[in-house]
Write a structure and sequence with these properties.
The chain is of the alpha/beta class. Helix content is 42%, strand content 15%. It is built from eleven helices and ten strands. It has an eight-stranded parallel beta barrel, surrounded by eight helices. Helix 1 runs parallel beside helix 2, helix 3 packs parallel to helix 4 (120-131) and helix 7 crosses helix 9. The longest helix has 19 residues, at 215-233. It starts with 6 loop residues before the first strand and ends in a 13-residue tail after the last helix.
Length: 325
């Protein structure tokens, strides 16, 4: 039996370049969503971060609403809402409204960071109730959308994976946050789905990627990401550096050491090189979809990276009547 083509999606953290404002970064996210809407990507998720000079996305539900209104083909969602920061009922209300306005196109991805983690399972259950996702139970009053949002749990470990599987929720594995192999995490998710009697799902894998027309350009973009992340890990949270700043930077021993470790989870190269690595990574994790997370200081480089990936993976152009997966 012929294997289905690998699906690609977008995880957008609204990166702020060192010559940008946060407002400009948010507008760049809106521009990117419009640019990839017809390229064959499956979904487009926006992230939530706070008090970070490098990321502008503090309100993913607002940004998701804007992107739903200005795109036609992508599933739009969050990767993710930091649920412990909020009242679960309010999160559900927001996404019920989005799903009512854009039926069949809304993903609600939630994460456990941002507050007391012990409340997370109960909050997820409350969200499920208000979205109308618990069989035989309806909230009072019932304001769930006719086509509810698809609920995703996000994580990098087996606890989150098992939780998602027990609920029958979808699961996204944050490969870019850890160099540890994720097959065991996704296997735990699939086993929990089966044990609970839910329909099988494979889960998706979120990977940090930079793709460029040449190896030299790809390496330039990769070094920017590595310097930014190395600094962040060492306590210096800054916007993404431009290529000129990276070329003139004198790497400290700790920065260079950290960058070496981070390279293991960064996929960088020409379209053919990236195609080979992402295809192998998908096979290693037994997944059919990769969430591509690309950070560049210049928004044009980010758009180009996604264009090149769509070309090399030969993503099918969306049909006007197609229903998002």
């Amino acid at each position: 039996m012929e294997q289905a083509p690998l699906r690609l999606s977008v995880l957008d953290q609204s990166p702020v370049g060192e010559d940008q404002s946060a407002a400009e970064a948010l507008r760049a996210s809106a521009d990117l969503a419009r640019a990839v809407d017809t390229l064959g990507y499956t979904r487009y998720w926006v992230a939530e971060h706070h008090n970070s000079p490098g990321f502008a996305g503090t309100a993913p539900e607002i940004l998701a609403g804007q992107l739903l209104a200005t795109t036609r083909h992508l599933r739009i969602g969050t990767g993710g809402v930091l649920l412990p920061r909020y009242r679960a009922a309010k999160v559900a209300e927001v996404f019920n409204v989005l799903a009512a306005l854009h039926p069949g196109r809304v993903d609600l991805g939630v994460g456990r960071a941002g507050g007391p983690a012990d409340r997370f399972p109960a909050q997820v259950e409350e969200v499920r109730l208000h979205l109308g996702l618990i069989p035989g139970r309806r909230p009072d009053p019932d304001q769930s959308a006719p086509v509810p949002p698809r609920l995703w749990l996000l994580g990098a470990g087996t606890n989150s994976a098992r939780h998602a599987g027990q609920l029958g929720a979808s699961f996204a594995y944050a490969y870019f946050l850890t160099h540890k192999p994720g097959r065991a995490v996704l296997d735990a998710y699939r086993a929990a789905l089966g044990a609970a009697g839910h329909s099988p799902q494979r889960g998706v894998v979120a990977v940090r990627v930079v793709c460029a027309d040449t190896e030299a350009k790809a390496e330039e973009l990769a070094r920017s990401v590595l310097l930014w992340r190395s600094r962040k890990d060492l306590g210096q949270d800054l916007p993404l550096p431009l290529a000129g700043s990276v070329r003139g930077h004198r790497w400290s021993e700790l920065e260079a050491e950290r960058a070496g470790a981070l390279r293991r989870t960064l996929v960088a190269g020409t379209p053919e090189q990236v195609h080979a690595r992402l295809t192998a990574l998908a096979a290693d994790h037994a997944t059919g979809e990769i969430l591509v997370n690309t950070l560049t200081a210049d928004p044009a480089d980010r758009v180009r990276s996604y264009q090149l990936l769509a070309e090399v993976f030969q993503l099918p152009a969306p049909r006007p009547d197609a229903v998002p997966v």
